[in-house]
Amino acid sequence: MNVDLFDFDLPAERIALRPVRPRDAARLLVATGDGAPFGDRHVRDLPQLLRRGDVLVFNDTRVIPAQLEGHRGEARVGATLHKRIDLRRWQAFIRNGKRLREGDCIAFPSEVQAVAEQRHEDGSWTLAFSGEEPVEVLLERAGQMPLPPYIAGKRPTDAADREDYQTMFARQDGAVAAPTASLHFTPDLVAALDAAGVARETLTLHVGAGTFLPVKAQDTAEHRMHAEWGRIDAETADRLNAARGAGGRLIAVGTTSLRLLESAAGEDGVIRAFEGDTSIFITPGYRFRAVDGLMTNFHLPRSTLFMLVSALMGLERMKAVYAYAVGNDYRFYSYGDSSLLLP
C-alpha cells in the first residue's frame, strides 16, 4: 500500500511533552468497529468498559538509560542502544557517526568506553563495551533515558523522566522505548480491574529504537521492520488460550504486546510459547489471530504503528478516530492520552 494513505495533519501543540498526573487521569477515546459514535472517557473508567473474564495483556519490559553522549577524538558522538547482541555488545544507532570507522573507540562519561566493531546495512553499529561490569550497570552510570525524538527535540531529559517513562509493570531490563499504553496504569486502577473480574497477564518484548524510525519507502511492501526480542512462556500462553476459550476477550495493552501475541499465535489462533526475535509488520489486510482489542496511545502520521491500528479497525475508521482526537484536544504520542479500540 502507498505510505501516503497513512498520512494525516497533526498540529504540533497536540504533542504531549509531560504525562498527566495521576497517570490514570489520561483521557481515553473509545472506538468500536460497528461505526458507533466515539466515547470520551478516562483511563480510570476501564473497569466499566471491559467485561468480567476479559484479559489485559501487558508488556513487562523495563526501559534502560540507553541514550549515551560521548566523543571520538574531538568529534561528539551520540549513541542510542537498541538491541542486545550478547553480554558486552549492543547494536546502536549513531548520531554524527559518518566518520566513524571500525575499531574506533568512543569515550562516554564516567569512564565508559566502547569500540565500534561493525557497521550494518541500516547504518547502525555494533558497539563492544570495555571492562567487566554488566553493560546495564555502565548505562546506569553514564546513560540517559531515551525519550522519543519528538519529545527530546523540544526539551531536555530530566530526573522526572526516570519515573515518568517507566511503567508500573517494568521488570525485565532491555527496552529503549517504553510500552507507552501501560504508562497510564496505577495500583488503584489495577485494584479496580481486579474487583471487576478483569484478568491480566504479562509478556516481554524489548522495544527497540527502530520503533521511532520513519518509513522511508513509498510502498509498505518495501519497508523492513527492525527485529525485537520477545518471550511468552508456556504457562502464560495456556492461560490466555483458556480465557479466550471461555469467552473472554484478549485486549493487548500497547502495540508491543499485540505484535508479540500475533507472532506467537498460529493460523489456528492458538497462542504458543515464544522466545526469540520478531519483525512482524502488520498492515491493512492482515488477519488477526490472537487479539480481540487494543489499548494504545495516538501514533505518528505515516508510522508503522498507525498502519497497525488501521489494520485492526480499518483505515477510514482510524482516520476518523484521529481526526476526532485532533479536533477534541486529545494529547498525542508517548506522554499523551490513550484509545481503546474494539473492532
Automatic annotation (TrEMBL):
Q: Which UniProt keywords apply?
A: Cytoplasm, Glycosyltransferase, Queuosine biosynthesis, S-adenosyl-L-methionine, Transferase
The broad enzyme category this protein falls into is transferase
Quick check: keyword Coiled coil in the entry?
Answer: no
Q: What is its EC number?
A: 2.4.99.17
Pathway it works in: tRNA modification; tRNA-queuosine biosynthesis
Instruction: Give a yes or no for keyword Glycosyltransferase in this entry.
Output: yes
* GO terms assigned for molecular function: S-adenosylmethionine:tRNA ribosyltransferase-isomerase activity
List the catalysed reactions. 7-aminomethyl-7-carbaguanosine(34) in tRNA + S-adenosyl-L-methionine = epoxyqueuosine(34) in tRNA + adenine + L-methionine + 2 H(+)
Superkingdom of origin: Bacteria
Which is a Pfam family this sequence falls into? Answer: Queuosine_synth
InterPro entries, per the entry: QueA, QueA_dom1, QueA_dom2, QueA_sf
Its localization reads:
Cytoplasm
Function description: Transfers and isomerizes the ribose moiety from AdoMet to the 7-aminomethyl group of 7-deazaguanine (preQ1-tRNA) to give epoxyqueuosine (oQ-tRNA).
Assembly with partners or alone: Monomer.
The UniProt entry's sequence similarity note says: Belongs to the QueA family.
Q: What is this protein called?
A: S-adenosylmethionine:tRNA ribosyltransferase-isomerase
Give the organism, scientific name: Novosphingobium rhizovicinum
